[in-house]
Structure formats: C-alpha cells, structure tokens
Amino acid sequence: METKKIFIKTFGCQMNEYDSNRIYDSVSKLGYVKTSNQSDADCYILNTCHIRDKAKEKVYHEIGRVKKLYRGKNKPIMVVAGCVAQAENKEMVNREPFIDIILGPQSYHKINDLLKKYIVNFKQEETEFDTISKFGYFDKIKNNDNKISAFLTIQEGCDKFCHFCVVPYTRGPECSRPFHKIIVEAEQLIENGAKEITLLGQNVNAYSFRQDSKEFRISDLINHLNQYSELSRIRYTTSHPRDMTDDLIDCYATNHKLMPFIHLPIQSGSNRMLELMNRKHTVQDYIKIYEKLKKINKEIEFSSDFIIGYPGETKKDFEETFNLIKHIRFINSFSFIFSPRPGTKASKLKMIDKDITKNRLIKIQEELFKNQIEINKSLENTTVEVLVENKLKNQNKFFGRNKFLSPVIFDGNENDIGKIINVKIESSNQNTLFGFYDKDMRAA
Ligand code: SAM
Ligand code: SF4
Ligand code: F3S
Questions:
Q1: What integer is the mean pLDDT of 355-374?
Q2: Tell me: domain 4-130, CATH 2.60.120.10, correct?
C-alpha cells in the first residue's frame, strides 16, 4: 500500500480532539500516516468549531493560510470537517474552491470512501446525521490513542436547545453508544497505556442505553471502569445540571477513581436569564446539586461556564451571577461574551450594549481569576497527587494534573510517566502549579 501523509488541525472541544484521533485511525487503513509537518501533507483536514465568534470567517482565513503553504507544491486533498462544515455545508465549496470535501461530525464513517473517490475538481459533501452508523463503523476500528490521559466519546448530540447554542444543529440529536462497545474501547485505551479516561458527550450525563429491559447510565459506565486495576482516574465532561441524577451523585461516595472535580456549567446566576436561555434548570436546582455533592465529599470542586451579556441581561441579573460566584467558589471557570449563532433563537434577539457587556466580563473574570489565584496559592508548600502525563518539549520538566485537573509542571523523572506521584508545590500562577517530585512522601 502506498504511504500518504495526513495532517489534521483541530479546533474546539475535547470531542473534536477525540474525533480527529478516530479519523487518523480510520484513514490509516488507506495507508495514510499522521504527519506533524503541515506543509507536506497529501490530505489536510481542518476540524472546525462553530460555538462562538466569527467561526466561519476563521475557517476561510485558515484555508487562505494553507493555500499559501502549498503554493508551488502539489495541492493536498482539502477537507473541512467538524461543526462549521455541518452548519455551512455546500456554501463552503462554492465560496472556496480550494476545499474538496465537506464532512459533518455525524458522517466521519464516510471519510475513507470520500478519499478513495477523490479526483481533482470533484467536490464532495456529507452532512447527514447518521450517528448510529458512525458509531457502528468506528466500533470496528481499534482506537490507537496511546496517551496517558485519553478521551472516550460515550454520547453525542443534544436535545436541549438552549436558545444561544448551535450544538443541537451541528451535532444533531442525542445518541448514546452501546454500553459494551464503550467498554471494549476503554479496554483498548487501557491496553495502550491510558491511566485516566475522560468520558465525553455534549450532555455526557444524559447517557442512556437500553438493552433488553435494562437501562445503562453513565453511573454504570463509571462503576464498571472502576474495576480495571490499571486505570487510576475517571472523569467525564460536559455534564448538564438537569441530568445530574442521584445514581451519578452516589458514584462519588463509592467510586474512589472518580475524580472530585465537576465541570457543571450554569451559564447565569439569574433564574430570569436561565429561563430566557431555555436552560430548563434554576439556580436553586444547581445549588441543591452542589450541596448534595459537598455533603458526600467536601473535597469536590466545581467549575462552570458563564455567558455574559445575553440579550435582556440587566444589572440585577448580572449581580446575581456575581453573587453566585461568591457563594460557590468555582475552582476555575470559563466566561464568554454572548455570541449570536446563525439559526438559533437568541440570534434574533436585540443585543445589549457592547461596552456594558465588556465591563461585566472584566468584572466577572476578575472575581473568577482572583478565586483561581487564591486556590492555587493555598496549595503552595503542600504536596499534591499528580498523574504524570509527559515530559515537556525542549525542557527538562514534566507535565501532569492534580485531582482537580489543574496543570502541574515539575522536576521529575521519565520513569514516573503514567504514575501518580506526590509533587511538592513551590509556586503557582492563575492556571498552573509548579513544584518538584517529593520523594519523601509516598503516593496514595
Ligand atoms: N453542553 C454543555 C452545557 O450545556 O453546559 C455546553 C457545551 S458548549 C460546547 C460550551 C459552552 O460554550 C457553553 O457552556 C456556553 O457557556 C458556551 N456557549 C455556547 N454557545 C454560546 C454562544 N452563543 N455565545 C457564547 N457562549 C456560548
Ligand atoms: Fe448547547 Fe445547551 Fe445542548 Fe449544552 S445543553 S450543548 S449549551 S444546547
Ligand atoms: Fe465546537 Fe462543535 Fe465542540 S461547535 S465546542 S466543536 S460540539
């Protein structure tokens, strides 16, 4: 088989990262090998994200850059995949003839056929929501990811239709993978060396797979994964407050591999805004979940996403969000200015003044970052458990994460990659902890 090179540039969420790896696994059957040299590929894939800002324009800008890289060379097969491909479909090839293939997230199982059929100037587009066929196709292809911390998609799509969000239109309806297929893939990842698995889904805790008369939930997956002695840590993302059911909450009492850190986006601290956003939960619902979890294990930390300047947000609504972050000290959080997405309900609403929104974002980020800095500072001169993931490029330092997903950079040892070790924290900044391997302390 002739060897060809493929380069994938990935934007967006963890699921896009997972998908890019699965595309590599698929095209390797056609003789493609992954290259890290983006100007020397036979096939160039942009795996795109549509969640905010000028996503579409960014893609055209990227293609302009790729065109320059290949000036005077053989043109690679140019594929636009991901959520922008799904949202824009044929429009893209009409506007940019450099693109050969448009491929939506639920059609990745067609990638090999599309590449086989490729001939110059023949444009192809696949944007069907065919999630079950996609899952079935990839179930037959081994996952070759060999990272210490690996992603594993268990569920895709969203039926919640928050008024601001494009995901239900780009990823399609909720669809959960068969329980036993997920376990087979988890076993492959563990065999490849994974010590941590993060279960992925747009609404990961809405996972529901029925077989015979039994319903399998994410709690069943977590409890099953807990049994693998080679696996040290289990995480999941992104969860929705509405699907934070008691069986999942109870996992925190019984499952020592489930990390005490939850990314649970609330978006706003105002019930009025949550209603306008169509979030289908209240601030009180969220606080109830927070309190239940804290009661089970007070070590559990939360992070969230916030949308600032959603149409209709008043000073009072914003103050309620601000008060919420004083009440729940999120360990880290993401805050975004509302970005109208084509096709969503909120895109038709009147935007609030840009300067007001900007000032609110600055104010909320100051508070969120202050929390983060204080929490990280409080860890200085203490010892934290770190799963060692890799050695940093061009530095004699190692990278890993503590239980709460905070990045830790430290002086360590090549032999410790894949192990949980104790790191003595010497200094920190807003995002990262710095330290050294504390040999005198035994890792738990
Ligand atoms: N499914 C997750 C949930 O419901 O919490 C969120 C998934 S979305 C990929 C990640 C985050 O992007 C959201 O939590 C939200 O804060 C943000 N987001 C989504 N649409 C947005 C928009 N139109 N403008 C600004 N931020 C947005
Ligand atoms: Fe988007 Fe809401 Fe679905 Fe999350 S729950 S993916 S924010 S529509
Ligand atoms: Fe972006 Fe699609 Fe993920 S819009 S955040 S790549 S689901």
A1: 95
A2: no
| Global pTM value | 0.96
Which CATH number fits the domain 273-378, given the four candidates 3.40.50.170, 3.30.750.200, 3.30.43.10, 3.40.50.150?
Answer: 3.30.750.200
User: Relative to the CA of 51, which ligand 3 atom is closest?
Assistant: 4
Q: What residues does each domain of the chain span?
A: 4-130, 142-259, 273-378, 383-437
**Number of the ligand 1 atom closest to the C-alpha atom of 264:** 5
Ligand 3, CB within 6 Å, residue ranges? 12-13, 15-16, 49-51, 82-83, 166-167, 170-171, 202
The whole-number pLDDT of residue 441 equals 61
Output the CA 202–ligand 3 centroid distance in Å. Answer: 9
Mutate to test the pocket of ligand 2, among 14, 200, 203 (most ligand atoms within 8 A of CB): 203
For every residue of 332-380, DSSP letters joined together read EEEEEE----TTSGGGGSPPPPHHHHHHHHHHHHHHHHHHHHHHHHHTT
Residue 434 CA to ligand 2 center (angstroms) comes to 35
Q: Other C-beta atoms within 10 Å of 1: how many? A: 7
Query: Could you give the maximum distance between any two Cα atoms of the chain, in Å?
Result: 65
Residue with the smallest CA separation from ligand 3 atom 3 is 13
> Which residue from 158, 161, 163 is spatially nearest to 276, judged by alpha carbons?
163
Q: Which of 2.40.50.140, 2.102.10.10, 3.40.50.2300, 3.30.450.20 is the CATH number of 383-437? A: 2.40.50.140
Residue at token pair 């959960």: 176
Domains 142-259 and 273-378 share a fold: yes
Res 315: pLDDT: 97
From 158, 163, 165, mutation site for ligand 1 pocket: most ligand atoms within 8 A of C-beta: 165
Q: Which CATH number fits domain 142-259: 3.30.750.210, 3.40.50.720, 3.40.50.2000, 3.30.2000.10?
A: 3.30.750.210
Mean of pLDDT values over 413-420: 94
The verdict on the CB of residue 167 being under 6 Å from ligand 2 is yes
Is 336's C-beta closer than 6 angstroms to any atom of ligand 1? Answer: yes
The helix/strand/coil state of 410 is: strand
- Residue 316 CA to ligand 3 center (angstroms) comes to 31
Instruction: Give the span between the Cα atoms of 172 and 166, in whole angstroms.
Output: 10
